């Protein structure tokens, strides 16, 4: 006798309580499937794109909304084609690319880039007057028009004033002097 029960009764009691430990073929197959799924998750999950972090050299797709200091939405890709860029190539604002590095697919982030780090401060030296004789024959620019310079730089200028003999243009980038706030949603990471 052990614990006040005869040995056969103790055995019967343990069997009734631990009956689920008896492994039948179907339970072994079920456990095999569960263990296989678990192992695949442990081995493959870290390589899946939804856990991968963006790094320099990756081609990424992002949705973004660009707000100016006053809250005005200047530009957005929401409802349009997402922005696709290769990180680290320097084709976009460096601070924007740096903010995307380390993000995971599905992650969102809001960053503010100061004017000096974006397109710089506005410069009065980039506002100048051009004699109309330098324009193409028949050209009738209006305030707000954008003109490309004919020199090798191809700078885009904005007409800010028009007179009978001259036009005044601004060669500052349109976003010069503006702090830029980007809301970024990382959609895809590729190679």
Describe the structure.
There is one protein chain. With 191 residues, this protein is of the alpha+beta class. The chain folds into three domains: 7-47; 59-119 and 177-190, Chitinase A, domain 3, CATH 3.10.50.40; 124-170, Thrombin, subunit H (Beta Barrel), CATH 2.40.10.330. Helices cover 20% and strands 28% of the residues. It has three helices and nine strands. Strands 1, 2, 3, 4 and 9 form a five-stranded antiparallel β-sheet that branches. Strands 5-8-7-6 form a four-stranded antiparallel β-sheet, with no helix packed on it. The radius of gyration is 33 Å and the shape is elongated. The mean pLDDT is 83.
Concise synopsis of the structure shown:
The chain is α+β, with helices and mostly antiparallel strands and 191 residues long.
CATH architecture of the largest domain: Roll
In terms of quaternary structure, what is this? single chain
- Total count of strands: 9
- Topology order in helix (H) and strand (E) letters: HHEEEHEEEEEE
Question: How far from one another are the termini?
Answer: 71 Å
Structural class by sheet pairing and helices: alpha+beta
Number of helices: 3
Largest sheet: 5 strands, antiparallel
Q: Please, what is the average pLDDT?
A: 83
Strand % is 25-35%
Gyration radius (Cα, Å) is: 33 Å
CATH class of the largest domain reads Alpha Beta
CATH topology category name of the largest domain: Chitinase A, domain 3
Globally, the shape reads: elongated
Q: Summarize the amount of helix as a percent range.
A: 10-25%
Q: Can you tell me the number of structural domains?
A: 3
The stretches of 5 or more residues where confidence is low (pLDDT under 50) are: none
């Amino acid at each position: 006798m052990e614990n006040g029960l005869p040995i056969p009764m103790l055995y019967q009691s343990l069997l009734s309580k631990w009956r689920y430990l008896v492994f039948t073929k179907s339970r072994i197959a079920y456990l095999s499937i569960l263990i296989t799924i678990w192992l695949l998750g442990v081995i493959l999950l870290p390589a899946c794109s939804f856990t991968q972090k963006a790094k320099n050299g990756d081609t990424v797709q992002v949705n973004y909304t660009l707000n100016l200091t006053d809250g005005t939405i200047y530009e957005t890709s929401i409802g349009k084609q997402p922005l696709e860029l290769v990180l680290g190539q320097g084709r976009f604002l460096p601070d924007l690319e740096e903010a995307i590095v380390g993000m995971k697919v599905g992650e969102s982030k809001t960053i503010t880039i100061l004017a000096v780090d974006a397109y710089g401060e506005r410069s009065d030296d980039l506002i100048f007057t051009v004699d109309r004789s330098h324009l193409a024959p028949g050209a009738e620019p209006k305030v707000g028009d954008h003109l490309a310079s004919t020199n090798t730089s191809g700078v885009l200028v904005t007409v800010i004033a028009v007179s009978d003999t001259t036009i005044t243009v601004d060669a500052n980038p349109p976003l010069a002097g503006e702090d830029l706030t980007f809301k970024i949603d990382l959609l895809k990471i590729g190679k």
